[in-house]
Amino acid sequence: MDFALLALAPGLALGSFLNVVAARVPLRRSIVSPPSACMSCGHELSWYENVPLLSYAVLRGRCKSCGEHIALRYPAVEASAALLVAGCVWKFGLHPEALVATFFCLALVAISATDLEHRIIPNRIVIPSAAVVLAAQTAVKPSPEWAIASAGAFVFMFLLALAYPAGMGMGDVKLALLLGAMLGRTVPVAILIGVVTAMIPAVVLLARHGSAARKMGIPLGPFLAIGAVVALFAGHPLLHQYLHH
Ligand SMILES: [Zn+2]
Predict the structure, then answer these.
(1) By the 8 A CB rule, do 219 and 115 touch?
(2) pLDDT of the chain, 245 residues: tens digit per residue
(3) How far is the CA of 71 from the centre of ligand 1 (A)?
(4) Where are the beta strands (DSSP E) in 51-108?
(5) Closest CA relative to residue 150, chosen from 104, 91, 97, 109
(6) How remote is the CA of residue 26 from the centroid of ligand 1, in Å?
(7) Helix axes 170-183, 145-163, angle to 10 degrees
């Protein structure tokens, strides 16, 4: 538990880095340089404007130079990265599995942020992440389970995309590779929770805007990520309950 609390600070720093990844990778810009700047006026951030969470609070969510609103996505990404890193250390202890799970969660945060912001799941994030997680899981817990679940989830999502092309993109299909590689046999839990929770805002939009709602696509990636986190932390008991009732 103490180690989990200690993990919060590096988790915040990693979240701050993920904001840079999410903002720049879809635009094919370098994640190393130039330094962080206001997206609106280009004002370069000094160190005290770049402290995770605190700066957002101190600046009251506005750029010091131009006063433009800073997207709530920035502190949200930092907070979720910190909580997930601490959660992985708490759940898996000081074990190699904690490292793999942490990497997996951070990839999910970056993917959710780019999907919400740019409406894409970049190949350059999801494919290398899936490869790293598959190799690491197979090394830490040797079994064909990870490769089989990865391929199985991919095929399932591909067929779902063929059946319902308006609802999902190929990015979601490739995301399934990553989910299966990490979650193994509990990956159906992640997909089921993801698809069902994504239907909630879809139904609300449909009720409010009628048929016009069909044009307002809802990105599926963040919902699959939520499902994946639930499956990572509670997938086995949930699957067990389901199979025995
Ligand atoms: Zn500005």
Answers:
(1) yes
(2) 678 888 999 999 999 999 999 989 888 899 888 888 888 898 999 888 889 999 999 999 999 999 999 989 999 999 999 999 999 999 999 899 999 999 999 999 999 999 988 889 999 999 999 999 999 999 999 999 999 999 999 999 999 999 987 778 899 999 999 999 999 999 999 999 999 999 888 788 888 887 766 666 778 999 999 999 999 999 888 888 888 77
(3) 12
(4) none
(5) 104
(6) 21
(7) 160
Rounded distance from Cα 100 to ligand 1 centre (Å): 37
Structure tokens, 84: 């997930």
55 Cα to the center of ligand 1, angstroms? 14
- Find the 70 Cα to ligand 1 centroid distance in Å: 9
pTM (2 decimals)?
0.91
Q: Please, are residues 186 and 236 in contact by the beta-carbon 8 Å criterion? A: yes
Domain ranges of the chain: 1-78, 95-245
Gap from CA of 65 to ligand 1 centroid (Å): 5
